[in-house]
Design brief:
The complex is a heterodimer of chains A (577) and B (82). Chain A has 577 residues and is an alpha+beta fold. In chain A, strands 2-1-6-3-4-5 form a six-stranded mixed β-sheet. Chain A has a six-stranded mixed β-sheet with strand order 8-7-12-9-10-11, sandwiched between helices. In chain A, 64% of the residues are buried. Chain A is 39% helix and 14% strand. In chain A, helix 1 crosses helix 18 (467-484), helix 1 runs parallel beside helix 21 (518-538) and helix 6 (217-233) packs antiparallel against helix 20 (498-512). Chain B is mostly beta strands. In chain B, 9% of the residues lie in helices and 29% in strands. Chain B has one helix and five strands, in the order ββαβββ. A five-stranded mixed β-sheet of chain B has the order 2-1-5-3-4, with no helix packed on it. Chain B is globular, with a radius of gyration of 12 Å. Classes of the chains: A alpha+beta (577), B mainly beta (82). Chain A binds chain B through residues 235-236, 239-241, 243-249, 251-252, 255-257, 268, 273, 276-278, 303, 320-322, 442-443, 446, 448-449, 452-455, 458, 460-462, 488-489, 492, 559-560, and chain B through 8, 10-12, 25, 50, 52, 54, 57-59, 61, 74, 76-82. The structure holds iron/sulfur cluster (SF4).
Amino acid sequence: MRKIIRINMSAEKPEVKEEPIGQYERYGGRSLTSAIVSCEVDPLCHPLGEDNKFVIAPGLLSGSASAMSGRISVGCKSPLTGGIKEANAGGQPSQALARLGIGAIVLEGKPKNGDLYKIEVSKSGVKVIKDNSLKMLTNYELVEKLKKEYGEKIAVISIGPAGEMKLSAASVACTDMELRPTRHCGRGGVGAVMGSKGVKAIIIDESDSKYLEPKDPEAFKDANKRFVTGLQKHPVTGQGLPAYGTNVLTNIINEVGAYPTYNFKNGQFAGARKISGEVEAQLEKERGGNPTHGCHRGCVIRCSGIYHDKDGHYLTKQPEYETVWSLGGNCAIDDIDKIAMMDFLCDTIGLDTIEVGVAISVAMEAGLVKWGDADGAIKLLNEIKEGTYLGRIIGNGAEYTGKAFGVDRVPVVKGQGLPAYDPRAAQGIGVTYATSTMGADHTAGYAIASNVLKCGGFVDPLKPEGQVELSRNLQIATAFIDSTGMCLFIAFALLDQQDTFQAFLDLLNSFYGWNITANDAIEYGKNVLKMERDFNIRAGLTSQKDRLPKFFYTEPLPPHNKVFMIKDEDLDKVFNW
Amino acid sequence: MGLNIKVRLFGGLTPPKSYPKNESNEYLFQVEENYRVANLIEELSLSDKPLIVVINGLICNDYERAIKEGDVISFFPPIAGG
Ligand code: SF4
């Protein structure tokens, strides 16, 4: 039986309560964070106030021996969108928490005196310890310090200076297999909410962690075997992602004219090839890094990598496609080493690379820094670290930056910056951006799969037909997958291979003694979205907020010269099922 | 008179032999009228591979499409990310 750990940070000495998972039993990962936030948080509370809750939940299969099951979700009311937020990441903490029997950690209340705490989680229980010596450490500095104190058999969830400053682009970092803080629950300012609870780090003891026992071990083993075989035989999860990582997208998205650049003014960037996954992988090989690397133990796809600088020293993990776009292509920067440096800075300051990159491109639009000026962009990131007024403006995201500098072309939905696909050249992803409960979020319903990559069929990216249905089905499926602790990238194989999808369901069924079918999975996903929508509506995010910024409807995007064509009444049908 | 086209290969696809290239790493081909995308795929020894084909920025699902003067044709293996 999983348990929920509740920590009241308002108390003079923070109180730890342990309770059975109870009413939340069928939930894990995203469904669990969203259920707790939706049931227990006042939708009108201030996101940084004592009434918000910060929930950390491993997925349903995390802690098991199943491949790919190490995703962790964090949830809260978002300071960026004002709505519900779930952000997830890989790394080691999910498996470590789940193996200690923990279904969720819920941080409640708020310390009164500005003290900073760390939380130790081990077999012997949960301890909250005041430690003001950690103040304003970057994520990398923090983890180094914790290693000295606790040894190397730990997994860490932490915030950097951005989270402590409660900036709306602040992320929550999770350590990877090498104990580096490289995997981030990025979006929506979740790091600011963790910061508002006065918690700098959660240190999870991994020293004697054992796989959780499934209800039916034989069936589970068999399902896992079929699942892994399915992932390995699909060309995307078996070859494309391991060889080049997510940044293999740069060239294709650019070729189809859906690569936003100069703050969503053009759909193609002349420097795209220089910053592509192919170039990144080549440099990693030449410099002694590694283009094929898992972000957590048990990942068989291994889309991640290790990026070394020109001298062959570790610089950062392999920058993801979204990061290379947001801090690179969208700002007209085509220097991959400088982009990798910015990736490192974001990880260590504790920032969402997408939000901060979109904010920097808005600042470039305002003339604050010149297009393509990588050093200017790096300077802005360092200003965030220092907490200067300018840094705090950028660190609060694209919308805030747009307001501060009087920019009227600000690519956000519900206050959250648009990711790396222009909705005018990939109309399906525009439906997801507009209607997702999370604000503009590509992962919430990754229509690029069918709009461009021909996974799960093909829906013409330049026409409105079929996009609402595509986005709806993907949003439902994603809400389910995000609850299981599985990396969303399994979806590329699940969409094309029925037997791999069945193996995935069999994993859940044999682990929990359930008997869920594909239809149940769909109902499950719908229920998650319903809880999230319900919270958002009570928070004031009604259907009028399910829209793209006006310029996407009026400014044609070269080279295809299309605008976003999905009608409002059709957007309003996404959740009518 | 042949038709002049440019071919771009991505995601680790390599040509089976050497073709003339320009400085942007595009392969330069001259093909006959009525040459199909399928012929080009065969020429590049890509017939047995799943592919994504993009012609002049548009995804091509019809490999019987006749190639036109000035076409820029890009080939990708199955890839994804996000
Ligand atoms: S596929 Fe990539 S993101 Fe997913 S678990 Fe593996 S390394 Fe992490």
